[in-house]
Amino acid sequence: MTTPIQYQGNTAVITGAASGIGTGLARQAAKLGMRLVLADVNADALHAFAATLDAETLAVPTDVTQPESVQALADKAWDRFGGVTLLFNNAGLMATGFSWEITPERYDRCMGVNFGGVLNGIRSFVPRMLKDGKPGRIVNTASIGGFLPSPLMSPYSASKFAVVALSESLWGELRMLQSTIGVHLLAPGPVQSGIFNDPFGDAGNNPATQQFVQLMRDTLTQNGMTPDEMARRAFAGIDAGSYWLFPHPEHLFPALEKRVAAILNEQDPPSFP
Ligand SMILES: NC(=O)c1ccc[n+]([C@@H]2O[C@H](COP(=O)([O-])OP(=O)(O)OC[C@H]3O[C@@H](n4cnc5c(N)ncnc54)[C@H](O)[C@@H]3O)[C@@H](O)[C@H]2O)c1
Known about the structure:
Layout: E1 11-15, H1 20-31, E2 35-40, H2 43-50, E3 57-61, H3 67-81, E4 86-89, H4 104-132, E5 136-141, H5 154-176, E6 181-186, H6 207-223, H7 227-240, E7 244-245, H8 249-264
Parallel strand pairs: 1-2, 1-4, 2-3, 4-5, 5-6, 6-7
The site of nicotinamide-adenine-dinucleotide has 30 residues, from α1 and α4.
């Protein structure tokens, strides 16, 4: 049983808050009367977005790949607001191309932000939240890509599978401690955002990757959920105490069923999407 949390007057920390899904989460948290600590590596965009919100907001330029940067974020959150109730480990980026063509730097950066950023958030925030002993939640953003691997974005798929695993381990650990801190795994499908605008450098020097990136951009623009609707669904799941936050079940469940069936029947991986 997840301990209920109160939003009004309590603090939410959101990483990757300057764009896309992070902005929707911030607007929804503000609507619920929360105080906000917003973090992003893009300081200009972060400050510009923070200024649009009608909430007590602290904007902290942060690089989630750097443990000391995330530690400083936690210091500032506790100094300013005295505690944190909701932590959204949301910052993420894309890296596309054939697996053997993606440079080690691009691979490492994608893993460092998408997985390392979540881990750094856990390391800096969970011990303090445990010490405070108040109800709280950690919400880690994975993706439907954390359940359905895709060609031409293997760093992203690998990093999101890692977030799925880390989050379940964390959930079990906090249960073992009978803690008042709960965990949620947020796994969206397509949401309107900037994630495919800068697929960490280039789209690869081959037509297949360029075509893939263009298709994904079009999918997000034309069929993507708005960040506000995504956030509304995520908060509904948080309210319900549901570990799994699936804002797009129709994009995940049928494909996941096929994947699991293929594994159990020892068949080739089904194509994606
Ligand atoms: N948009 C989608 O369709 C979709 C689907 C599933 C999951 N997601 C996940 O949602 C999360 C948010 O992505 P988005 O789609 O809103 O993309 P986005 O590009 O619009 O926003 C991501 C934000 O993260 C920030 N960021 C990047 N590296 C950072 C770092 N080192 N430190 C701090 N901030 C950093 C960026 O500056 C940006 O503001 C990501 O984890 C992404 O993988 C997105």
